[in-house]
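Data card: per-record layout.
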Amino acid sequence: MHPIGRRDFLAALARAGVGAAALASLPPAVREALADGVSPDVLVRSDRPEQYETTLEALGRAWITPNDAFFVRTHLGTPDVDVKTWKLEVTGAVRNPLTFTLAELEKLPHLQQAVTLECAGNGRGLMRVPSTSGTQWGTGAVGTATWGGVRLSDLLHRAEPASDAQHVWFECADLAPMPDVPRFVRSIPLAKATFDTLLAYRMNGKPLPRLHGAPLRAVVPGWYGMASAKWVTRLRVEKTPSDNHFMVRGYRYNAAGEDPTAAAPVETMRVKSLITRPADGTRVGPIQRPDGTAILRVQGLAWAGPAGVREVAVSSDGGSTWQPAMLVGRSEMGAWRLWQCDVTVPTGPSDLTLMARATDGAGDTQPLAARVNAGGYGNNSIHRVRVLAAPAR
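The structure for this 393-residue chain is written out next.
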C-alpha cells in the first residue's frame, strides 16, 4: 500500500465525494486519527487495522516524538474501552489477587520515563523478504515518548507472586472481528517485569491516547514494541510463557519454510541508527573550511536494546571510510541518542552515499544488511542516504 499523509488522505476522500456521514461510520479511533489538525507527519500504511508510520523528517525534529506523530501499530484494530468501567486485574500464580480502577492506579507512586519503542517489523519493506503479510514499514515505525504510570514491580510486590512463578502475561481488550482469529496476548519473564517495565496511562504529559493503548499499556524498555502490549486489562502471573499464537508462532526469527516454533523469539531491540538530515535525494551545500576542505553536517538517531548505544560512525563515500560521530543531547537509559557528524566531502559537485552505523555497549555493530527472516523482523541494516552535493561555499 502506498503511504500517504493524513491531510492528503482526507483531501482524497473529499475529491471522491466521501462526506461526513461516511467518515462518521469509521471506527472512533480512525476518526480521531484523521481529524482536522492532526499532524501530517504520519504515513498511513493501513487504516484498518491502524498502521501509521512517522516520517523521517518528523523523527529528526526533536528528541521526543509528539503523540500525534508517534507511529501506531495495531494487530486487531483499536478497541473502544470505557474508562469508567475499566479495571485491571492481577491474577494467576499470586497470593493476593488484585483489582484496580484507573483512579486507584493514579494514586500509586508515579514514574515518568523516556523510552524508545520500535515495531519489530520496522524496515520490513526495505528487507528482501520473499513473501510476507506484514505491514511494509519503511524506517519510521519507531519513536521516543515520556511515559507516565506505575512500575509493574509495585503491583507484583503487592500481589506476591508464587515462588515458582516465572512469567507475566498481558491480556488485552482488543479482539479480532472473526471468532477463529486468536486474541493478542504477550508475556515477558518475571525478571524483566520486575526490573524496568512500566504500566503507562500518560504519554508525553497527557492522558494516554486511545490509539496508543488507553487507558493502560505496558512499556517494556529495550524490547521490540510487540512486548509493550496496549489496552491491558489483566496481568496473569504464570509458571510458563504465554501459549498464544503471537508468542508461539508469531514474532520468531525463522527462515522461509522453517518451523517458527523452533526459531529464536523476537525480543530485545537490535542496535540501529537512522540519518535524519540531510534527506535522501536532496541537494546539499557543503561548507568550505579555511584549509580548503569541504564538510557536510550529517545528523541522526541511534538506539539499541538494554546495552545502549556506545558509538556511531558515518561514511560519506559508501562505506570505504568512516568518521566517528558525536553523541549529543539527552542520555537516558532506554531512550535513543541524537548524534551528529561533520564529514569531509569533495569540494566540487558530486553524488554522495551517506551511511551511518551504530555499535551498542555489548560491542554489536549494525550489519551492512541484516539476515533475512520470513517475518521481516529486526531489520537493522545500515541506513543509506544519497544526496547531490553542490560546490562548497
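Known properties of this structure: The first strand starts at residue 4 and ends at 5. The CA atoms of residues 11 and 217 lie 33 Å apart.

See the next section for split statistics.
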